[in-house]
Write a structure and sequence with these properties.
The complex is a heterodimer of chains A (357) and B (529). Chain A is mostly helical. Chain A has 15 helices and no strands. Chain A folds into three domains: 67 residues; 42 residues, no CATH class; 210 residues, Orthogonal Bundle (MetI-like fold), CATH 1.10.3720. The radius of gyration of chain A is 25 Å and the shape is flat. In chain B, helix 9 packs antiparallel against helix 11 and helix 14 runs antiparallel to helix 16. The longest helix of chain B is centred in the C-terminal third of the chain and has 18 residues. The chains are: A mainly alpha (357), B alpha+beta (529). At the A-B interface, helix 4, helix 5, helix 7, helix 9 and helix 14 of A face helix 1, helix 7, helix 13 and helix 15 of B.
Chain lengths: 357, 529
């Protein structure tokens, strides 16, 4: 907290802390950025920052692809032997390996892959026989639906539970909600998934067991997956809110005679969400890279299953494609988290030296 | 919050706009697969036969006549002749057979299909089924642009000449690998053949309608099927990797058939459930469970050690406790139901004392340490291995179970360096060659990490392949079987098992396939309203 004085990069806020707080309370940072960007370069700083991060993503992605490629070539495994399994025939393996140019040196294969990838061609999956890009693009919307729904569930459980627990600290509600959210984290998804399937599909018959043919198919997986990450959100909201509640401006708000609910929701909560939002962005990125177990239990044709199948089958092209995609998602999640940060706390600037990000 | 509204709205739309709506047709059969088949091009897969068996036909078909028994019947070929030297096969094609695209089946389509398998550009995996045709080798290595052994006599006659006699040739092409494609459609489909439903054309009772990768494949009845209107309107094949999910889907009526091979832990439940026990359908599977012994690892180069291992395992107990006794003990290589099965083979007993004596004679009175390998994600294999670990422990052999991922497992096995392991094999076609040659021919014994060395046996195996006299050939196979298993103790045969399914009461006429494929042709099954 800056106790007042000039705020970097914003002339209007160079009054005192109080108006700054007000300005900030007017919800979002976008408003704030617009209202406070007397200096036009502010917006372009954000753009430049994003661009810089995206450029940095390129070496990261290259590194990821390279490491996966090398690792998979170091560990034993032969995609053709795997495809044939019990029907192995040494002559056929040798012939097909040669036909697929799998016997070329590792580096030759790596650069061939890289060259093609740079031209937008990620190759054909060994096992699924389809272009990698199209496989990933077909699977991604399914994962996206699941991730978004699960994230919503986790926020809907996590944030209210966190608020309630912070406001009524050590009460029954606190214990109950924290207990409920922690339960979600502690129980493995395959087990919760099975339990839900048993109760809601088998016993009650109100939801389908598995598959992905309509919105009702999304209900159970979203709850199971969302519940599993609600605990983190709840704990974070609780501790962060508790910390904010100790601040002077909360006392001021109360002294002004504001209703407690208003104090909590519009004064305290917004300020306490900063760390929560970061975790949320990373959580969504994580969910988008595929919830392998949930996708398996509920038979959802998403990214997670594609990636795991690719590893199991030593399906190099498909695996490389998945790695590129998930690396990109995680990097994007990080950038979004950073932007949300500045959005929620305009004091955080990306162009100023000394503000380490 | 105002800014959030469009976002929330977009999310809602996204969520609601999920995939296609489930069309519940009462005359559809719903079955499960554990993984996506990857391709419906049978030349490029060695085990994903679910779609191919239903959308293509073969020149000849092996049908199940009785539990565990099969017979070769005419398929796309009405009749066939074999020359007296066993080299030339002449097939007369059925008249008026239509492909799904309306084309009429011609001998040229057969030539095209078999040539495509051997064409190196196809990168086919199933070439073993056709590589005995004259000129196949030259075609595969790129030395020839055609296969010299394939000849179109006229539109309804095709002649196939083999390089050497191969008695099981007919049985061998009655497998999914012998499926016949249409030249025009397949060429037009290019690399989309077997992937794009519209471009994957066969003559079979069903047409591939829709394929959502990792989700489902839908097949619909082909009204112009030469064998008459199919008994089902369609088949829905769902990809459900999780065994428990499969079971719950079956119990909630979303699956009509549950292959208990995919949910082995559920077998006792279904066998005892009052609701389901009468719905369990089973049939002997022509296949064998066995332990492979790697003879290049000491002390397994000593036949006495191998024999001791055979005697130290209580196979009856394994069968009863782990498989509910649903199978029969095997003492050789050819399981019950296979041509050449020898019921007179002496039984391999369970005799700890004799096993210990043999170990002592071999110089291991206090036993030795050894490894059993298996893949990580197979709890049912782990159960067998743990039981065997305990049994071998009783005669002093200290077993360590090594688990590895399947990629490592198969890659190590291919090089001949995998330690002892448990596996099973079931018949592709009804001939001893499909077992004994697959396991114990000189090259294959290394590729499967047996490293069984007996030059006389290897030579005889090649000899048996080209024998025309069936009686003599079967006799030779039985002699070789006895040498390999009983004299040389080349492997430890365990048992053959029944294949168990549970079906919904509305599913009628469900017959367990005689062979070992988990997949089966579904035409003939009916669903009562």
């Amino acid at each position: 907290m800056i106790p007042g004085g000039a705020l970097p990069g914003c002339r209007r806020a160079s009054v005192q802390a109080e108006p700054y707080q007000q300005c900030r309370m007017r919800t979002a940072c976008r408003l704030y950025v617009h209202a406070c960007t007397d200096r036009p370069e502010e917006a372009s700083h954000v753009k430049r920052y994003i661009l810089k991060k995206l450029l940095l993503a390129i070496p990261v992605m290259f590194g990821m692809v390279f490491i996966t490629f090398i690792l998979l070539n170091v560990v034993p495994g032969d995609p053709i032997a795997l495809m044939m399994k019990e029907h192995i025939s040494p002559d056929v393996v040798a012939r097909v390996r040669a036909e697929m140019r799998l016997d070329d040196p590792v580096m030759v294969r790596f650069f061939r892959f890289l060259w093609n990838a740079l031209h937008g061609d990620f190759g054909i999956s060994y096992k699924l026989n389809r272009p990698v890009a199209s496989l990933l693009l077909t699977a991604f919307p399914n994962t996206l639906k699941l991730a978004v729904a699960a994230a919503l569930v986790s926020w809907l459980i996590g944030i209210p539970a966190g608020i309630l627990s912070a406001v009524r600290r050590y009460s029954f509600a606190d214990n109950f909600f924290m207990g409920f959210s922690i339960m979600g984290v502690s129980m493995p998804v395959f087990w919760t998934g099975l339990l839900f399937q048993y109760i809601f599909a088998f016993k009650l018959g109100i939801l389908p067991v598995a598959g992905f043919k309509g919105p009702e198919y999304l209900v159970m997986p979203a709850i199971v997956l969302g519940w599993s990450s609600a605990g983190t959100i709840a704990r974070l909201t609780r501790s962060s809110l508790l910390e904010v509640m100790r601040n002077d401006y909360i006392r001021t708000a109360r002294a002004k005679g504001l209703a407690e609910i208003k104090v909590i929701l519009s004064h305290a909560l917004k300020n306490s969400l900063l760390p929560v939002v970061t975790v949320m962005a990373l959580q969504v990125a994580g969910l988008l890279s595929g919830a392998v177990i949930t996708e398996s239990v509920f038979g959802i044709p998403g990214i997670g299953r594609v990636a795991v199948n690719a590893i199991q089958n030593r399906d190099m092209p498909l695996l490389q494609g998945s790695v590129v995609l998930t690396t990109f998602i995680v990097i994007a999640g990080n950038i979004i988290a950073d932007i949300m940060y500045s959005y929620l706390d305009p004091r955080i600037k990306y162009n100023k030296p000394g503000v380490s990000r | 919050m105002r800014a959030l509204k469009p976002v929330l709205f977009a999310i809602l739309i996204l969520t609601l706009s999920a995939t296609s709506v489930f069309a519940a047709n009462p005359n559809y059969l719903s079955v499960a697969m554990t993984t996506d088949p990857g391709t419906a091009d049978v030349q490029k897969t060695t085990d994903m036969y679910g779609i191919p068996l239903n959308i293509y036909d073969r020149l000849v078909e092996a049908v199940t006549v009785k539990p565990g028994e099969s017979r070769i019947v005419p398929g796309l070929a009405e009749k066939w002749d074999v020359s007296s030297d066993g080299l030339v096969y002449t097939f007369t094609l059925r008249k008026g057979v239509k492909f799904h695209n309306g084309e009429t089946l011609k001998a040229d389509d057969v030539l095209f299909t078999f040539d495509r398998m051997l064409d190196p550009k196809t990168k086919a995996l199933n070439t073993d089924f056709l590589d005995m045709i004259a000129g196949a080798g030259d075609r595969m290595s790129g030395k020839a642009a055609t296969v010299s052994g394939l000849k179109v006599v006229n539109d309804s006659t095709i002649q196939i000449t083999l390089a050497k006699p191969f008695a099981p040739f007919i049985a061998n092409i009655a497998t999914p690998a012998g499926s016949i494609y249409n030249r025009k459609a397949t060429l037009a489909a290019g690399d989309q053949f077997g992937l794009d439903p519209k471009k994957t054309i066969g003559t079979g009772p069903f047409v591939l309608k829709e394929w959502i990768v990792n989700d489902s494949c839908t097949l619909v009845a082909f009204p112009g099927y030469w064998g008459g209107k199919p008994t089902l309107d369609g088949i829905e094949m769902l990809v459900i990797p999780d065994a428990n999910t499969q079971r719950l889907m079956f119990e909630t009526n979303k699956l009509d058939v549950l292959d208990l091979d995919n949910a082995r832990s559920q077998v006792p439940y279904f066998l005892e459930s009052a609701k389901w026990k009468s719905q369990v359908v089973s049939g002997p599977r022509v296949g064998i469970y066995y332990y492979a012994i790697n003879q290049s690892i000491k002390p397994f180069d000593d036949v006495r050690v191998r024999k001791a291992m055979q005697l130290a395992i209580d196979r009856k107990l394994l069968l009863d406790k782990l498989f509910n006794g649903r199978g029969s003990l095997e003492n050789g290589i050819f399981p019950k139901g296979l041509l050449g099965f020898n019921p007179a083979l002496p039984a391999i007993g369970y005799d700890q004392k004799k096993a210990k004596d043999l170990l002592a004679q071999a110089g291991y009175p206090t036993g030795f340490d050894m490894e059993i390998a298996q893949v990580t994600d197979s709890p049912s294999t782990l159960k067998i291995n743990e039981a065997v670990q305990a049994m071998l422990g009783e005669v002093g052999i200290r077993v360590k179970i090594v688990q590895m991922d399947s990629a490592t497992y198969f890659a190590t096995r291919k090089t001949g360096n995998l330690p002892m392991y448990e596996s099973d094999w079931s018949a592709d076609f009804n001939d001893p060659d499909n077992f004994i040659y697959t396991f114990f021919s000189e090259k294959n014994t290394v590729a499967r990490s047996y490293n069984y060395k007996n030059t006389a046996v290897h030579a005889k195996l090649d000899e048996a392949r080209v024998m025309v006299d069936q009686v003599k050939r079967m006799k030779l196979y039985q002699d070789l079987e006895k040498i390999i298993v009983q004299d040389d103790a080349g492997w430890i045969p365990l048992f053959s098992l029944e294949h168990l399914f549970v079906v919904q009461p509305k599913v009628k006429n469900f017959k367990v396939s005689w062979n070992g494929w988990s997949n089966m042709p579904y035409n003939g099954i009916t669903i009562t309203k």
